[in-house]
Design brief:
The complex is a heterodimer of chains A (121) and B (110). Chain A is 0% helix and 50% strand. Chain A is mostly beta strands and 121 residues long. In chain A, the strands form 2 sheets. In chain A, strands 2, 4, 5, 6, 9, 10 and 11 form a 7-stranded mixed β-sheet that branches. Chain B is globular and about 40 Å long. Classes of the chains: A mainly beta (121), B mainly beta (110). Chains A and B meet through strand 5 and strand 10 of A and strand 4, strand 5, strand 8 and strand 9 of B.
Chain lengths: 121, 110
C-alpha cells in the first residue's frame, strides 16, 4: 500500500524559504499523473497550494503562485515544495497528496500524515 | 472565482441520526469535479466521495453524495460514533487549473 511522508524543517525564520519533501514509498510516483500540496493553518480549513505532474508540469494557487515552486525527483521517487518570503501567516500543517487516477474525476485519494511548519523569528 | 460555501457550520446530532451537509457553489460546477473529505483531529483528510456521488475505496455505504450544478449534499444515513468529524467539499477549477475547498462543516455529538 503506497504511503506518502512529508519531511523538512519544522521552524522557518521570516522572510526565508519553507522547503518540504514528500517521499513516495511502496509504489512509484508514476502511479499517479498528478501530486499536490495542501496546507492547513492551526484551527482553520484546507488550502490547496499547487500540483505537479510526474513529467514536471505544475499549477499553483493564484494567491501563492509568485512564491511557490514545486519540483519532482523521479529517481528518488519524491516531490518537493518551496515557499519563499514566508511570514507568520504561512504557519500551518503541510500535506502532500496523490490525485485520483479515475479518468474524468478529481480528488486526492491518499494523503501524507502532514508536517507542522512554524514561521517565527 | 467559484466559491464553495458549506452549511451548517456546526451540526449537533446523536449516533443513529441522519446527517445532511450542504455544499453550495457560487456558480455551476461539473459534478465529476466535486469531492468530499472527512477530517478527524490530528489526522489528514480522508477522501469519502468523488464525482459528487461515487464512494471512495473502503468508504461505508452509509455515506452518500448527491447534487449537481451549484448544490451538492453529503448524507450520512445512520451516524456511528466515529463519524463525528469535520467535513470538507472540494472542487476542481479548469481555468486557471486548481482546487478550492469549502470552509468545512463540523459534525459534533449532541
Amino acid at each position: 500500500q503506497m504511503q506518502l511522508q512529508e519531511s523538512g524543517p519544522g521552524l522557518v525564520k521570516p522572510p526565508g524559504t519553507l522547503s518540504l519533501t514528500c517521499a513516495v514509498s511502496d509504489g512509484s510516483i508514476t502511479d499517479s499523473n498528478w501530486w499536490s500540496w495542501v496546507r492547513q493553518p492551526p484551527g482553520k480549513g484546507l488550502e490547496w497550494i499547487g500540483e505537479i505532474h510526474h513529467g514536471g508540469n505544475t499549477n499553483s494557487n493564484p494567491s501563492l503562485k509568485s512564491r511557490v515552486t514545486i519540483s519532482v525527483d523521479m529517481p528518488k521517487n519524491q516531490f518537493s515544495l518551496a515557499l519563499s518570503s514566508v511570514t507568520a501567516a504561512d504557519t500551518a500543517v503541510y500535506y502532500c497528496a496523490r490525485h485520483l487516477v479515475t479518468p474524468g474525476t478529481r480528488g486526492f485519494d491518499l494523503w501524507g500524515q502532514g508536517a507542522m511548519v512554524t514561521v517565527s523569528a | 472565482e467559484t466559491v464553495l460555501t458549506q452549511s451548517p457550520g456546526t451540526l449537533s446530532l446523536s449516533p443513529g441520526d441522519r446527517a445532511t451537509l450542504s455544499c453550495r457553489a457560487s456558480q455551476s460546477i461539473r459534478s465529476s469535479y466535486l469531492a468530499w473529505y472527512q477530517q478527524k483531529p490530528g489526522q489528514a483528510p480522508r477522501l469519502l466521495i468523488y464525482g459528487a456521488s461515487t464512494r471512495a475505496t473502503g468508504i461505508p455505504d452509509r455515506f452518500s453524495g448527491s447534487g449537481s450544478g451549484t448544490d451538492f449534499t453529503l448524507t450520512i444515513s445512520k451516524l456511528e460514533p466515529e463519524d463525528f468529524a469535520v467535513y470538507y467539499c472540494q472542487q476542481y477549477v479548469i481555468s486557471p487549473p486548481g482546487y478550492t475547498f469549502g470552509q468545512g462543516s463540523k459534525l459534533e455529538i449532541k
